[in-house]
Amino acid sequence: MDSAFNKRFLERLLQLSKQVNDKIGRKIMFMEVCGTHTTVISKSGLRGILANHMELRSGPGCPVCVTDQADIDTIMALSRLPDTIIATFGDMIRVPGTRSSLEQERARGARVETFYSPREAVTYAAGHPDKEVIFLGVGFETTIPAITLSLLEARAAGIKNYSIFSVHKVVPPAMKALLNDPEQKIDGFILPGHVCTITGRKAFDFISSDYRLPAVIGGFEEVDVMEAIYLLLRQILDGRVETMNGYRRLVHEDGNIKAQEIMGKCFDPVDVSWRGFGSIPGSGLRLKAEYATHDARVRFPIEVPPSSPPEGCSCGEVLRGKLRPDDCPLFSSVCTPVDPVGPCMVSTEGACAAYYQYGIGY
Ligand code: SF4
User: Fold this and answer.
1) DSSP letter assigned to residue 246
2) Phi and psi torsions of 207, nearest 5°
3) What are the tens digits of pLDDT across the range 233-269?
4) What angle do CA 123, 125, 131 make, to 5 degrees?
5) Residue 315, exposed/middle/buried by CB under 10 A (0-12, 13-18, 19+)?
6) Are 195 and 145 in contact (CB under 8 A)?
7) Mutate to test the pocket of ligand 1, among 320, 352, 357, 360 (most ligand atoms within 8 A of CB)
8) Cα–Cα distance between 46 and 29 in angstroms, integer?
9) 275 alpha carbon to ligand 1 midpoint, in Å?
10) Inter-residue contact 317 to 276 (CB < 8 Å)
C-alpha cells in the first residue's frame, strides 16, 4: 500500500465501511471469487488493514482446489497407463489424491510434463508420436478457450496422440450453489475479472436480480480490488443492488463471443462434482461426441477405487467460505506449502497458500 492515492482511497474505504457497519448493525463480509484476487488481497495487506471493518472471505476461485478428489484420483490412474505422458500446468503436480500425487507417481516412473500453454503440449505430442499425451483440462472460463484451441489445432494437424481429460468448470453455476446455501452469510461478491472477460458481465446478473446481493467485477491491481470494495459498499449505503462492472477496460456486457463459440463448438455442459460442494448442475464441460478421438475420458476409460479427501482437511469448508484457512486445525502446523495436506495449500491460487505466504493479518 505504497502510493499516496492508494492510501487516501483506503482511508475512504475505512470511512465507508464504518458507515455500512453502522447501517446494518454488524461487520460486513464480502467474498472474493478468484484465487488471483485472494493473492492480491493477501499480498497487499488489504485483508489485514480492513479487518477491523470488514471481512474479506475467500471462495471457490481456484480451479485446482475445487477439482473433486475422485477426478484427482482418476488423473493418478491415467498417469500409470503405459506409454502415456500426462501434460499439465504446474499446479497439479503436488495436489494430493487419496493415495498419491503426480509428483509421487513421477518418482515411481510415470511421465508427467508441465507446460505453460496447451499449445506447447500439442507440439510435444507431435514430437512423441509413439506416446499418448493427455492434457489435464483443469480450469475455469479463463483457460478453457486456450485448451479448446489446442484440441482444434491437434485435430487440424492430424495429431492423433493428443487428448484432453476435461475437468473444466464454469463459475456461474457454482455461484448459484453458494447462494442457494441457506447458511450463506456473504453480503456481496468481488467477481473474477478474468472469468468475466469471457462470460461477460450479464452472466452474473442473477446475483443481484435473483438473490438481491450486490456484486462487482474486479480487476487485479490493488487499486482495482479497492474499487470493487468501494462499489460494493456504495451500493449498500445507497440501498442499491446491482451486478456492476469494475473492470471495464477488459470486461464487456456479453463477454468474448468468439471464445464462447469455440467452447460451445467442442463442449457440452454437464453436472460435475466440486470439492466441498458435491454435484453442481451444468457446472462442468465434457467434449462433444464428435471429438471423442481427443477425449481422454472416452479413449482411456478407467475405474478408480472410492476416493476420500485428506483426513482432517477443511478445504471443502474453505472453498464454500464457511471457514477461513486459519480456522483449519491443520493450517501451518501439519499443513504447509512444503508438506501440503490439501489442494488449497498447494496451488498458487489456493487460499491457504496465500494466507500462509502473506500472513493472516487479523
Ligand atoms: S490448511 Fe491444509 S488441510 Fe487445512 S484447509 Fe487448508 S489445505 Fe486443507
Assistant:
1) S
2) -60, -45
3) 999 999 999 999 999 999 999 999 999 999 999 999 9
4) 165
5) buried
6) no
7) 352
8) 14
9) 13
10) yes
* Contacts for 121-129: CB closer than 8 Å, 24+ residues apart: 121/87, 121/150, 121/162, 122/150, 122/153, 122/154, 122/157, 122/159, 122/162, 124/85, 124/87, 125/87, 125/154, 125/159, 125/161, 125/162, 126/157, 126/159, 128/85, 128/161, 129/161
For residue 336, the CA-to-ligand 1 centroid distance in Å is 8
Instruction: Supply the angle between the helices 144-156 and 118-127 in degrees, to the nearest 10.
Output: 30
Q: Which of 57, 35, 73, 104 is nearest to 320 (CA)?
A: 57
Cα–Cα distances (Å) from 71 to 155, 204, 227, 342, in that order, read 25, 27, 37, 14
Q: How far is the CA of 58 from the centre of ligand 1 (A)?
A: 13
By most ligand atoms within 8 Å of CB, the mutation choice from 275, 315, 326 for ligand 1 is 315
**Which ligand 1 atom sits nearest the alpha carbon of residue 346?**
7
Q: What is the pTM of this model?
A: 0.95
Q: Which residues contact 180 (CB under 8 A, 6 or more apart)?
A: none
**What's the 33 CA to ligand 1 centre distance in angstroms?**
18
CA of 343 from ligand 1 middle (Å) equals 7
Query: What single-letter amino acid sits at 29?
Result: M
Confidence check: pLDDT of 114 > 70: yes
The residue to which cell 467474498 is assigned? 31
Q: Which atom of ligand 1 is nearest to the CA of 313?
A: 3
**Ligand 1 surroundings by CB, under 6 angstroms:** 313-315, 318, 325, 328, 330-331, 335, 341-342, 344-345, 352
Centre of ligand 1 to C-alpha 338, Å, is 13
Nine cell digits for residue 278: 458435491
Q: Whose CA is nearest to atom 3 of ligand 1?
A: 313
Mean pLDDT, range 166-178, rounded to an integer: 98
For residues 7 and 154, which has the higher predicted lDDT (pLDDT)? 154
344 CA distance to ligand 1 middle (Å): 6
The DSSP bridge partners found for residue 189 are 31, 215
